[in-house]
Amino acid sequence: MATVDLSERFVFDDPRFDLLAEQSAQKYAAGSPFPHIHFDNFLPQDVAEAVLAEFPKPADIDWHNYNRQTEIKLVCADETKFGPVTRNLFYQFHSIPFLRFLEKVTGIPNLIPDPLLRGGGLHQIRRGGLLKLHADFNKHDSLFLDRRINILLYLNKDWKEEYGGYLELWDKDTKFCGDKILPVFNRLAIFTTTSDSFHGHPDPLNCPEDMTRKSLALYYYTNGRPKGEDDGIHTTIFKARPDESFKGVMWRMGQDFAPPVIWRTVRRVRERFFSKSIQKRG
């Protein structure tokens, strides 16, 4: 494979993204159970191939290893551990041309990227891993901005339906799955995030032992959000499907009545507690 250099190549300057945004806005808005869309062959093929080639294996770097009832996954948000093409691509996902593309698709103006990659970065899930249905935290804990959009770029070649790992989008009462997206190579998923946008891949992966579910995750914010979506500050809300039960981490009720300074303190204490169980893999 030829060497890819993004230092002087600006992927999202391509006029095709303007046309793609114009063609997709209506479909995005009509997405059910909440606004969403996915694009196949999103990146130039050579760029997607280069990012996949750089993607670290579970033993290659120190990952945050989440291993609890609601999520079993590996996450790396430290860009110094990314390969050069991947790192440059993240910068371009934070660039004005991509923000303008995202604003046209979603209809949400004045989007702000998150260079801190809170909750984002490289995600990798091995056989048996999962991510239960959840609505994401709605306020950035350092920038104090409102989370509005999630994007996920999948990097899974030869991924079969029987492996599972679909991104499932559920209604606010988690009674039915409105749509599901197979995480195949070079597919980009975009969706609006609110306190009711429950999503995940709640069933354990059934891929071969030598395969993993790989993705890049990025989140976008605004300074404030529509009043109808102002549902009180909360961290991630996990919710069971009709056929399952688990002891979810449900902080929302307390947050509805507590000042922000209190829930931020509680969250930091909680994160310190959970960090003790995070296993580092070299």
Highlighted features:
globular, alpha+beta, 14-stranded antiparallel β-sheet, Jelly Rolls, 6 helices, 282 residues
CATH architecture: Sandwich
Q: Main sheet, how many strands, which sense, barrel?
A: 14 strands, antiparallel
Ranges with pLDDT <50 over ≥5 residues? 248-258, 273-282
CATH structural fold name? Jelly Rolls
The DSSP helix count reads 6
- The helix/strand class is alpha+beta
Radius of gyration equals 18 Å
Q: Name the average pLDDT.
A: 89
How many separate domains?
1
Backbone shape = globular
Oligomer: single chain
- Would you identify the CATH H-level superfamily? q2cbj1_9rhob like domain
Topology:
Layout (H helix, E strand, L loop, with lengths): L15 H14 L6 E4 L5 H10 L8 E6 L2 E6 L7 H10 L2 H11 L5 E2 L7 E5 L4 E6 L10 E9 L12 E4 L6 E5 L5 E6 L5 E4 L11 E10 L14 E2 L13 H6 L2 H16 L3 E3 L1
Antiparallel strand pairs: 1-10, 2-3, 2-14, 3-5, 3-6, 4-12, 5-12, 6-11, 6-13, 7-10, 7-12, 8-9, 8-11
Helix pairs in contact: 1-4, 2-3
How is this structure best described in words?
The structure is a single chain. This protein is α+β, with helices and mostly antiparallel strands and 282 residues long. The protein has a single domain (11-281), classed as q2cbj1_9rhob like domain (Jelly Rolls), CATH 2.60.120.620. 24% of the residues lie in helices and 26% in strands. Strands 1, 2, 3, 4, 5, 6, 7, 8, 9, 10, 11, 12, 13 and 14 form a 14-stranded antiparallel sheet that branches. A hairpin with a 6-residue loop joins strand 8 and strand 9. Helix 1 runs parallel beside helix 4 and helix 2 (45-54) crosses helix 3 (84-93). The protein starts with 15 loop residues before the first helix and ends with a strand.
